[in-house]
């Protein structure tokens, strides 16, 4: 993923516990499967990177969640680094631990990976944690609020992050049960930032402009899919709704502009 905005309400007793809208940006040549229940792990709902084998965002029937963005530092990229997507799938498939314990374990070997942000959560524990291997901050659990991650550390005020985080907060203030389709549309925004707002991340100005949009569309790289997710609590019950719009028509090939939609809903089964 390259832009994630989310609202986290760990003290909720009725209504939305977690609401997320996210864009996955990737090179078009990199093949991937869209969101689906994995045949070898039937409790895991996620897309799959067919090159590295991991995923960028996923969740499980027992209430675990994870998502990842790359950290933009082109001069630090190593071709021999392990794939980052397995950090998501490992949390979702390995024996259960706490989000903070898992992130601390990841952090012990964090330097072997290219730059990333990783958020992992356990909705049954009401815990959501964040770690970035290019930040001096240690892994930490997140406080309640509306947050965003792009290709820098949590809540770095890049224009598209600030804009979409504010839009999400405003939509939820008006309607905490806003339709997921409206959150998908919110993220598919091609507006570019002004040149004086652009970060300097080591790429060309032309590339910085193109990547400043929430919805990126260049000849070789762009937003491959948009995910909207809501986790709702009613007393002890937890339910999940998720919508994905992607450019994959089932062939694992690009079919722009990406109007293939998938919807899922399930109740969390507690296994604490």
UniProtKB/TrEMBL annotation:
InterPro entries: TANGO2 (IPR008551). This is NRDE family protein.
């Amino acid at each position: 993923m390259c832009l994630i905005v989310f609202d986290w309400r760990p003290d909720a007793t009725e209504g939305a516990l977690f609401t997320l809208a996210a864009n996955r940006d990737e090179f078009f040549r990199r093949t991937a499967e869209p969101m689906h229940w994995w045949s070898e792990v039937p409790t895991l709902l996620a897309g799959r990177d067919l090159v590295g084998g991991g995923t960028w965002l996923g969740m499980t029937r027992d209430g675990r969640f994870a998502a990842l963005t790359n950290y933009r530092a082109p001069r630090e990229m190593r071709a021999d680094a392990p794939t980052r997507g397995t950090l998501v799938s490992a949390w979702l498939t390995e024996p259960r631990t706490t989000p903070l314990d898992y992130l601390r374990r990841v952090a012990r070997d964090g330097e072997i990976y290219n730059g990333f942000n990783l958020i992992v959560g356990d909705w049954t524990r009401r815990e959501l944690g964040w770690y970035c291997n290019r930040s001096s901050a240690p892994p930490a659990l997140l406080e309640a609020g509306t947050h965003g991650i792009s290709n820098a550390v949590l809540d770095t005020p890049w224009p598209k992050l600030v804009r979409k985080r504010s839009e999400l907060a405003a939509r939820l203030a008006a309607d905490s049960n806003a339709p997921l389709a409206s959150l998908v549309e919110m993220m598919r925004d091609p507006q570019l930032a002004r040149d004086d707002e652009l970060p300097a991340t080591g790429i060309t100005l032309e590339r910085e402009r193109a990547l400043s949009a929430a919805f990126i569309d260049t000849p070789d790289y762009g937003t491959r899919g948009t995910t909207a997710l809501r986790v709702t609590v009613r007393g002890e019950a937890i339910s999940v709704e998720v919508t994905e719009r992607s450019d994959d028509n089932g062939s694992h090939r690009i079919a722009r502009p990406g109007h293939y939609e998938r919807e899922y809903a399930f109740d969390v089964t507690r296994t604490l």
